[in-house]
Design goal:
The chain is mainly α and about 375 residues long. Helix content is about 70%, strand content about 5%. It contains 17 helices and 4 strands. A hairpin with a 4-residue loop joins strand 3 and strand 4. Helix 4 packs across helix 6.
Length: about 375
């Protein structure tokens, strides 16, 4: 118990560890929030286009067109006479004019039209011409639900995001990947606690007095290793949980409603990170600071490849070199968290967790066997 308290106190007193595992990730998410909080909504919100309608015929084709445009939210019909509409169009006061003939629709656009304007206005006309017979039947029968379904299909054509039906349980936001990658980065920085754990138990790496105290302890080396690991794991779990809480509460990034699986992710990812840090401490050469710096370099490389700065990188690797995603620990953790939040089927989430757990068991086994067998004659 004394060793546990000592390790816990020492971990909490490590300011650099607290900074990189908590302060830095939360600060980075704050800047992401400033940069990305409104981008997705702006990209996926279509402002209504002001349009006029000129009818050059009087039949069912022309009469039903007005009924349909009245229900399309992306259009705002301007009710003026023909001359006024052309005048407004020339002055860029309206975005376009529909010229509805007996069985066709021409589109006139303002001089300063954008590609988005042209796409939206032209799509409505093309949609109406293509679906006229069905719309006529639905309107004639009074089946407004059928009409609305057709209009929804029109809106789907102007959606910026496309998803496979049945995979996602809620609307995804591609910018959220940066937040999840930042959470994973903070968790992976917990590896520095693993490096320090090794330093406390090896006189040739860390503080000599600390290692001497561990060597003369009546407790077995395995118990000392386990105690040091659990004390750091406790701190890591608290930090990661609070970071995720901040992400969800203050930056409004979804974490799903699957608490048991989320706790499993937090536990598995932190145990992996600590065990990976033990590998850094055991097999890298040099003083503890040098070993830690080498570990940070590897972690930042892993985090970068996982899409922390370029969210499309994992997708590129998946297409051209998928093994990178399979072996990169940061990507594995990112995918696990992302799939936990957004996927209906959690099979792929558990696959990623199994990968992490197997590596953790391997790392812990190697670290425990190596540490418990080391002795120092100078002590």
């Amino acid at each position: 118990m004394m060793m546990f308290k000592y390790s816990l106190k020492k971990t909490l007193s490590n300011r650099m560890f607290i900074f990189w595992s908590f302060v830095f990730p939360v600060t980075l998410m704050f800047f992401f929030h400033l940069a990305f909080s409104t981008i997705y909504a702006e990209e996926n919100t279509i402002d209504p286009r002001d349009v006029g309608i000129i009818y050059e015929a009087d039949n069912q084709f022309t009469s039903f067109f007005g009924s349909v445009t009245d229900q399309i939210e992306v259009l705002n019909e301007i009710d003026e006479d023909e001359d006024t509409l052309y005048e407004l169009l020339g002055e860029n006061e309206i975005d376009g004019i529909y010229i509805v003939k007996e069985d066709s629709i021409e589109v006139a656009l303002c001089p300063k039209y954008s590609e988005t304007d042209a796409m939206i206005i032209k799509t409505v006309a093309d949609f109406y011409i293509r679906e006229f017979d069905l719309i006529e039947q639905a309107l004639t029968s009074g089946d407004m639900e059928a009409v609305q379904n057709m209009i929804n299909s029109l809106n789907a054509d102007t959606d910026y995001m496309s998803q496979e039906t049945g995979i996602y349980k809620e609307q995804t936001n591609p910018y959220n990947w940066y937040y999840y990658a930042t959470i994973v980065m903070g968790i992976m920085f917990q590896a520095m606690a693993g490096v320090n754990l090794v330093a406390e138990l090896q006189a040739d790496v860390g503080e000599r007095k600390v290692a001497m105290r561990s060597s003369v302890s009546p407790a077995s080396k395995s118990v000392l290793v386990l105690t040091a690991f659990l004390s750091r794991l406790l701190v890591s779990l608290v930090i990661s949980s609070f970071s995720i809480f901040c992400m969800n509460r203050f930056f409004e990034i979804p974490v799903g409603n699957r608490l048991p699986q989320l706790l499993l992710f937090i536990l598995a990812s932190n145990m992996f990170s600590l065990s990976m840090g033990e590998m850094f401490g055991l097999f890298f050469k040099g003083p503890v600071q040098t070993r830690g710096n080498k570990g940070v370099a590897l972690i930042m490389t892993s985090v970068f490849l996982s899409g922390e700065m370029i969210a499309t990188l994992p997708g590129m690797f998946e297409r051209y070199l998928p093994i990178v995603n399979d072996v990169n620990p940061a990507t594995v953790l990112n995918l696990a968290l992302y799939r936990l939040v957004y996927y209906e089927d959690l099979t792929s989430f558990y696959v990623e967790i199994v990968k992490i757990v197997l590596l953790t068991i391997l790392f812990l086994t190697i670290a425990t066997m190596r540490l418990r067998r080391q002795k120092y004659a100078s002590l």
